[in-house]
Amino acid sequence: MEDITHSPLYSPDLAPIPPEKRTWSKWDLAALWVGMAVCIPTYLLASYMMRAGLSWQAALTIIGLANLVITVPMVLNGHAGVNYGIPFPVQGRAAFGTVGVHIPSIVRAIVACGWFGVQTWIGGLAIYSIWNAATGQQGEAALSTGKFICFGIFWLINIYFIWKGTESIKWLENWAAPILVIIGLLLIGWGVRNAGGFTNALGQGEQLQHGTLTLLPYADAPGRTLGLSPLLRADGTPKATHYRILPSVEWKTSPVEWEALTGPVTTVSLGMQPEVHVQFKDGTGHESSIVVVNAEVKAAESVGFWQYLMWFTAMVGFWATMSISISDITRFAKSQKDQLAGQFIGLPGTMLFYSFVGIFVTSAAVVAFDDVLIAEDAPWDPVSLVSKFQSPAVVIFAQVALLIATLSTNIAANVIAPANAFSNLFPKRISFRVGGVIAGLIGILICPWWLLDEISGILIFVSGLLGPVLGVLLCDYFIIRRRVLNLEGLYRVDGPHAGVSMAALSALIAGTAVALVGYWVRSLELLYTLSWFSGTAVAFLVYWVMMGGRSRAAG
Questions:
Q1: Burial label, 251 (beta-carbon count in 10 A; 0-12, 13-18, 19+)
Q2: Which one is the CATH code of 19-196+303-546: 2.60.120.260, 3.40.50.11890, 3.40.50.11540, 1.10.4160.10?
Q3: pTM over 0.85
Q4: Half-sphere exposure of 390 toward its Cβ, with a 13 Å CA cutoff?
Q5: Residue 393 has what pLDDT?
Q6: If you ran DSSP here, which 8-state letter would residue 227 be given?
Q7: If you classify domain 212-293 with CATH, what class do you get?
């Protein structure tokens, strides 16, 4: 093999890892996935589906099946990493070209940098909460110097593990994984103890899949009729005892009398009012949040096949970006068996387990906390759950758990890919360490403290459009090259993969266009709803056709 160490495309961080230096076993990979999968979004997944009307059983089934499905391309695309010890930007040179690969790798990197900023801000807030609980201070709702200091502390913790390299990341994930599993079991134990048993806690979950306010389309009263359904106790009686309807115009300045609820479901005529605010309270004075009903609210509809399909696609897309850059991780695996077993052990099971933890603990909270009167106030996210506890020790423990989960997710899912992508831009000048620091700096520049919700929405949108990259990679590696790569050629500026592959670029544009057409054209919305599948399939087919559908092994 020709000496490629002097090539501008070569660096020690991007070089193939020799077999004797690949130290990650199946348990290391499984631990990595536990560390990545245990995060606030995983905890919240099932809640989104239940709020849309799905049962908790259906939500867990979709999450389990979707993660089994996404693990298949994860393992397939990770094959090259194990086979050749190369990261995603180098693997992608075979399909996209040595220059063309910067398009998918940098887009993937920017998405990861965005999530890095969001997760680092969340971790900083956990440190801020720990400080307040330990000192007895009252936290501020607005931005404060303390929050920025805590954000900086957590940012530096992340940078420490980046600077120490991949072995420190493996160490972090191996320690975090059992701790996170134990925390999940402790949360389930808390739910069993405080909700009167395992079955009783789960039984409360059915209430959470229905909104508190339901428009009744067949009521006899003129205008619109509303059904009020606060949460019920274990004996079937409403937790709330009274309600009040607040007109939308300057309701805060006009005192409104409370009315007694007449049963599990109380019917109220709204007349022709376009918008009203509804609030509940119980006999001890606990008041619910205010729920708004406006003219756009429609009567409840049953969940249909397309809703199930939409949620299934969304769950598959949850790890879509990781499936693209998985070689960044599998290149450290000892064997194909290790990466296969490690990913199937770590990913589907963890996602299913922690989604169940979210469902179970929130369902138990319906019984455990007297002030949770309506489904909208159920503490679905860990931050809301922790706020229900008064003990500083419990708050500190919970925030430390959140900190560990956020750190392990951030380092593995949001640092490795951009570090390699930025290193691939200028291999001789940017190392893995420097690439990771660049990712961290971009995470600061996006100002997540101001644009948290907006950034998250943009990142989810962009992630949904990255499926075509996976389609090109799989077609190139398995169909066109039959798993045989010209390793030397991947590092040569004048080699067989020099420049930009028009076939890959065209396939990427075609796959992305299919999803965008569905986004802009209402009648083709299904294409966007199924963007991960449609984009991946179209890109795979276009690339295969443009490459002549023939094998180019080792070329």
A1: middle
A2: 1.10.4160.10
A3: yes
A4: 1
A5: 85
A6: E
A7: mainly beta
